[in-house]
Structures are given as structure tokens and as C-alpha cells.
User: What shape does this take?
Amino acid sequence: MAFETKSPWLIHYDGSSCNGCDIEVLACLTPLFDVERFGIVNTGNPKQADIFLVTGGVNAQNLPVVRQIYDEMAEPKVVVAVGTCACSGGVFRECYNMMGGMDKAIPVDVFVPGCAARPEAIIDGVVKGLALLDEKHRNLKASKTYGVSEDDPRTIGGVRE
Amino acid sequence: MAEITTVPFGPQHPVLPEPVHLDLELKDEKVVRAIPSIGYVHRGLEKLVEKRDFKQFTFVAERVCGICSFGHGWGYVKAVEGLMGIEVPRRASYLRTLWHELSRVHSHLLWLGLAADAMGFESLFMTAWRLRETVLDLFEETTGGRVIFSVCKVGGVRRDLTGAMRTEMEEKLKGMRKEFRAMSDVFLHDGTIQSRLAGIGVLSLQDARDFGCLGPMARASGLPLDYRCADDEGAYKDLHFRPVTEQAGDCLARVKVRLEEIEQSVGLILGCLENLPDGPVEVPVKGFPPAGEYFTRVEQPRGEAVYYVKGNGTRNLERFRLRTPTNGNLPGLVKILQGCDLADVPNIILTIDPCISCCER
Assistant: This one.
């Protein structure tokens, strides 16, 4: 098992959700659900995060923000879309300022349904994400380009010069 | 003379549960000017009223904001009922008041936790959120939902309280109140908290009035602005409601107002339970909203929200407009950020209790 899965750090960003899912994400961290017992820590820094919990759908204003947070996260990383809005746009699907679910902006690994998603469902989604994180970690380690992108000009034959 | 440096704050920031962006212009450590920019959460749901049936739109209105969800549902149905001339049964009004006040307790406890977290007082954050779970349990038992209930509908409420629920609610709330008083002591007497909040971000009474501040922010500056005093639909008149005010106008005063309001809301809920009238909880609704306009208000946990509806005789309303308290509080926030230290910015932003999701809809 990869070390990240023993103590995954997560970052949370509110796309354009109504707050319902955000407060449930925070509720996961507090004494009743207490995900810290699994070593899960909420961080504000994308560079330290392994799991990206994103709520709400995408609109033109927050699209670059979501992409930037995703790009700043180090590999391996897992994206968990929390709530119906993040999955498909939900009740706001037909609003003029909504582009749809989070999969329109970044590659999503786990979808957690619910309006608002219950803390149990969110924890379940994160646990499903952990299996993916482990797999991604192993794939990354097996590939020669560990930590380096394939199309980085400094990379020759998969090995960094 | 130091140069001016611009520091971006947000949209993704550890203390912000929601995205808002501020450009802070600094001279050394002092903020000279703060320029807010919003729009990260704008969905355009007011326009959705043209695509949804007027009864269906209640569910959309509840999702304006997940924290004050019940209040938004209530505001919308109140406006539609006013337009259609529907008289809601007294028991339904009492139940609405009860759930609305319970929402306020949950919202303020949530906020107290976030404020403690912004100061770096993590155990207090955990305590506040643990107490909040008691309230959420009561919600789940009586309405079926934890944060979004969908219990309010045009013509009344969807669920009724049984006798067993009433006694349990009373017991649990009294237990919670005891624990809350212990926590409230920490906020009022802890030295670290005093030094982080007292005298910081002072908003004068004149400024509060001039900038159109609302809710606890205005009340902490001595402006007794509370729509619950004038509300005639809910049970507030029967329960002899009086607004809570503080005079200092600083961050600590805003904390004190909210602490006091939790006590008051628990009192109001217990009063509602005691005086709950018998009778039906809903009336049948026939026909569509007639052509015309209606305008109403609800005192949300963050201040007064204004609801406007315009009907045209069809199943869809023509226009729904909502003005939320955070909208009114942002100019005041920009004012109190001027001249404060950079280290106090997160605290000051949190003490206005910004609800960006309400603000941008």
C-alpha cells in the first residue's frame, strides 16, 4: 500500500455549490464523523494535497480556478466530485451560467451523489478514491517517468536528463 | 514611504469555505484598500423561475444557500402565498418559525466554529461543530434532511411534529444549551480570543447605517435592525421577540451578538413547542399565481433577505428577485478592512459571516 493512502491529505474547493455539500464536507472533519482517525487532514495548499474534493458545478468564472488547483497538485492525485451539482449540474443544470458538472473542467475519478451529499457518502467516496490513489501510485512508480511529464522537453527516452 | 503591494486573497483560501476574491492593497502590514470581486458561485437561478412550475421552484429557492436553506424556502413560499392570497394555518406558521430558528442555531454554531478555526483555535472549532450535530439530528428526525429539508411548501409545511418528537426536541435542546453555555464562556473570557477580536474591525453606528449593513453585523454596532420584530406571519409576535444588540461594533461584539442569538433562538424554539397550536399544517392550493407582484422579507441568520415575485397567471412566475444580507454587508466589510493589519483580515472577513452562495445566487 502506498504511503499516501495511509494518510491522504485533501483539499476542498467550492465550485458553485449552494454550501450544503461544503458544510457536509467540513462536518466529516468534526467529532461525529472524524475522518482524522484515518489520517485524513484538510489542507489549504494544493501542493500538499492528494485528494481534491470539489463541490458544485462549473461556470466560466471558476473554471480556471478549479483547473489551477488541479494542476498545482502533485501526482498521484484523485478527484472526488461531491454532490449532484458536481456530478451533473444538478438542480442548476438549466441555469444560464452553468456549464455542467465538474467533469467538464477536470478529470473526475469518483462521483458522490446526493443533494446535499451525506457525510457517510462523502467518506465512502474518499475511501473509493484511496484505492484509485494506490493504483495510480503503483502505475507511476512502474513507469520510468516518475514525477516527470512525458512531454517535458528535458525528458529523453523517459529518463530526465 | 513604503510602496503599495497588492496581495490577492482567495478565491481558494484555507479560511474561506466559499470562494470570494479580494485584492488587498498593503502599505507595509496595513491594508490601505480592499477590492472585492465576486461571481465564482453565480448560477443564475432567479431565471430558472421561468422554466419551473411555481411549486417546484421551492426546491430551487431552498438551494440558494445550504446554510440558510429553510429561510430561503420560507421567503419564497411566503411571497407566492402573498401573491395568491393564501392564508397559512397557524400551526404551520409556528412550525416554520421553529425550523427557521433551529436553522439559525445551526448557522451560528457553524459560524462560531469557523471563526474559531480562523483564529487557529481548533478545539473550539470541533466543540462548536459537535454541538451543531445535535441540531442536525433534530432536523433529521423532524424533517428527514440534515442541511436541505424541503419541508416548506406553498400552502403550509410537509411534515408535522408528533408528541414524542416534541419532548425529545425539548430535552435535546436543553442539554445542548447547557453545553453551549460552557462553550460560550470560552468565547467571552478566553484571553487569546479577546486579544484577537476586541477592538478589531470596528464599524461605527453611523457607518453601519450609511453602508446599509444588516443582521448581526448591524446589531453589533448598535443598530437594532431585525425583521423578526415586524414579522406578522411567524410566531414572533406571540413570543414577544426583542432584537439582540451590542454597542462596540468590533469583531468581539459580532461574536457576542451571535452567542446571545443562539440563546434567544433556543428560547424561541422552546416557546414555539410550548404554545404549538393544534390544527392542520397545510391548506390546498388551487390555480396559478395571478398577474401581479408581491414583496416580502425574512430575517435570515445573516440578516434581512428580501423576496420579490411577479406572476402572470400561468404556472410559471415571470420574475423572482432576491436580495440577500451578504450583499448589504460587503460594502461595510470593505470599509472595516481599511487600516487593519493583514493578519486580522481572515478574522474580519469571517465575522461578517459572508454567505457567498446567497450573495451571488
User: Anything to note?
Assistant: The first strand of chain A starts at residue 9 and ends at 14.
